[in-house]
Amino acid sequence: MDEFSFIDSIKQHTYKQSSLIKGIGDDAAVFSSLSQNIVSAVDTFVEGVHFSKETMSLFHAGYRALAANISDLAAMGAAPAFYLVSIVIPKGWAQEELLQIFNGMRHIAQNYNMDLIGGDTVSGKELCISITVIGFTMKDKARYRNTAQSGDIVFVTGTLGDSGAGLHILTHSDNYKEASYYINRHRMPTPRVSFAASLDHLVRVTLNDISDGIASEANEIAEASKATLLLNEPEIPTRDSFIQFPLKMQEKWKLFGGEDFELLGTIPAKEWKEVQRIGELTNTRVTKIGKVAETGQYGKVILKQQDKSILLEKKGYTHLK
To answer: What is the distance between the alpha carbons of residues 245 and 4, in angstroms, rounded to a whole number?
Structure first.
């Protein structure tokens, strides 16, 4: 395929964001923002590591890749605006296949009025997709991991373990309850953008997106905030039909599975009712799962189970391990 004809086939001819001055067509894109903070994130996805044709279509691969980046923006309290895509294309790939990936991205981008404003295309040995996203927050309203304080309530959105269950269903044929639900949660996750954005009037909110499992994300908050998180395992929410899976798998997916792209956060106890109200307003399930406590073990996460408490280690999916 010809690089320039491919770029022409994926570029937008009209744009949604009023802050955009120049989109695709020059050496770089140009946008302006005077009243807001600019938030940016980047992720890279490799075929065979992050996605496989055996478990999802190319449309779903594109959709989920951009969804993961949008979830990062949600965790920062940012409204998504732009994305750039750099793609390494192996020999033998047809333009129609690549368009399916970009169609998946375009599908979810439309939900948030995001504009594709640039990227790069190169040839290589394996398919790699690198996505940069850009969003905006109101001045001084970006959310961080290092703001949790003693007495805060720890909460989580949605249900956990769904993506891991979905992947299991796709790779282990059997008669499962709500199979389509779990598969959809794996292939087409929903970033919690509207929920996070609706917290903008609250003074202090700590957020982290659950991409590598709640064990990893909770430890990141504890370490960054120099705090101790006490989590109650029975309160960590799962789908009712989740009990159909073996207990060991339930625990693995719920605590360490990742790719649910829900939000883990802390909030002052006096703000909890407001967070619940925002959850109802945005049709987001919000569950209290613990608290930030004074224990002297700063940077630690303690998981309270039925009859014991254990140190929840920072496990989950990590690269370069």
So the answer is: 49
- 255 backbone dihedrals φ, ψ, rounded to 5°: -95, -35
Q: What is the pLDDT of residues 250-274, one digit of tens each?
A: 999 999 998 999 999 999 999 999 9
Cα gap 206→266, rounded to integer Å: 5
> What CATH number was assigned to the domain covering residues 153-311?
3.90.650.10
The answer on pLDDT for 1 being more than 60 is: no
Say whether 153-311 and 3-138 share the same fold. no
Question: 57 burial class (0-12, 13-18, 19+ CB within 10 angstroms)?
Answer: middle
Mean model confidence pLDDT for the chain: 91
Convert the pLDDT of each residue in 200-220 to its tens digit. 999 999 999 999 999 999 999
What are the sequence ranges of the domains in the chain? Answer: 3-138, 153-311
Instruction: Extract the tokens encoding 32.
Output: 């302006």
Q: DSSP letters along 95-150, please?
A: HHHHHHHHHHHHHHHHHTT-EEEEEEEEE-SS-EEEEEEEEEEETT---BSTT--T
Contact 183, 166 (CB under 8 A): yes
Q: What is the mean pLDDT of residues 98-107?
A: 95
Architecture of domain 3-138: 2-Layer Sandwich (3.30)
Cβ-based burial of 5 (10 A; exposed 0-12, middle 13-18, buried ≥19): exposed
